[in-house]
Amino acid sequence: MSIYYCYYINKIEVLTVDKQKTQGLNPYLPSWEYIPDAEPYVFNDRVYIYGSHDRFNGHVFCLNDYVCWSAPVNNLGDWRYEGVIYKKTDDPLNPAGNMCLYAPDVTVGPDGRYYLYYVLDKVPVVSVAVCDTPAGKYEFYGYVHYADGTRLGEREGDQPQFDPGLLTEGDKTYLYTGFCAKGDKSRYGAMATVLGPDMLTILEEPVFIAPSEPYSAGSGFEGHEFFEAPSMRKIGDTYYLVYSSIVMHELCYATSKNPTKGFEYKGVIVSNNDLHIDTYKPAEKPMFYGGNNHGSIVEMEGQWYIFYHRHTNGSSFCRQGCIERIEVLEDGTIPQVEMTSCGSNGAPLIGRGEYPTYLACNLFHKDEAMYSGGLWMDSQFPKITQDGKDGDEETGYIANMQDSATAGFKYFDCQGITKVKIKVRGYCKGVFEVKTAWDGEALGEIPVDFTNVWTEYTSDIVIPDGVQALYFTYRGDGSAGFATFTLE
């Protein structure tokens, strides 16, 4: 792993200038790593990512054990693998490992230790593990319970627990949970439960802080009701509830001056198919194959970021983490941001050299495909994927580029580019159009032909100087695999 990833970083360094030593890209982890549901936290000048762990070509969500990655807060292009921090078989309820570890969260307890909260996929209770360091080996600690020992989620009248989110203040830890599908009248919304200093015992019983769809009338949450993925952050004296809404592809937020009541819906921070954004296309046109979303916000060196995930491999169960810079305005609001390829970089990528196509932030076909909840897309749609099996350290690429399939990359600072190269394979015969807008005129074409190995094709194409998006649209017969593009 380390050899591959050092190569990846060094390759990007070749493209950088001046003080930029590495570049933050989307996805921010290697293309073979699938960590959705990320909760980012800064400990000792490093940001640590705690998420669930999908398996490439997995048949359900979250098949792998928990792992952790971290990066220095001043270099979000330098991610380090911290290893497996918790195995699914470490929970006493799961000795055979036949239950999956769903989305976790971590908080620092009053004793200074790190507490990992999670839910297994077939039980309604919240499990807790503990560690002395942010990314060491976590050991099972216990289950969240009432004072009489009854586990939260198992008392009559309890809602099943799901997607724990944490915020610790002094001796109190606020536990946020919930899963509320549209139309399900048995689920009322996001819950807040207050725990004592032992991190397990309930001091204040669950209350609902954001409504589910059947109970949202007059709440201000209409159309963006709580679905899952509650995550809490505090900015100044204001609590920010980040959550996934019933439309799934968006991460929304609500705010309050109290951690357990009074939350008001404020807006969307990011959508993993770029809906609602009208800065470069119609607001309700999807630009990526979206699905469920989960993540949160974090501040590093005065800059705020949103961590979220995208869907790959034509599957609901193969998700990768992405980052975007966000702005918290003086009035406390957070404008929605676009999905980009440059992610945390804070500036356009260098507009020369070779880039892998798995960095695409836009990917679509003439027959738009919205999330349907199914395992596989129809075979005509393009998808980011890899060869081999889960854990193979190899570079991802785009498969199934059929006629009209378009891959978009944002943004590049191009200067003096007169030649574009692409690497393609597959039973295809046609051209790749190169554009600077998804619906723009082609600047030029790169012809491609049938080949069963990665083959480089080149055309003289002038890219206008300045900051540009780049779009590659395939026109022709068959299906092309698209690995890299080079700007010269």
TrEMBL record:
InterPro entries the UniProt entry points to: Glyco_hydro_43, Glycosyl_Hydrlase_43_Enz
Keyword RNA-binding: no
Keywords: Carbohydrate metabolism, Glycosidase, Hydrolase, Polysaccharide degradation, Xylan degradation
Hydrolase found in the keyword field: yes
Domain of life from the UniProt record: Bacteria
Protein family according to the UniProt entry: Belongs to the glycosyl hydrolase 43 family.
Designated name of the protein: Family 43 glycosylhydrolase
Organism (species): Evansella tamaricis
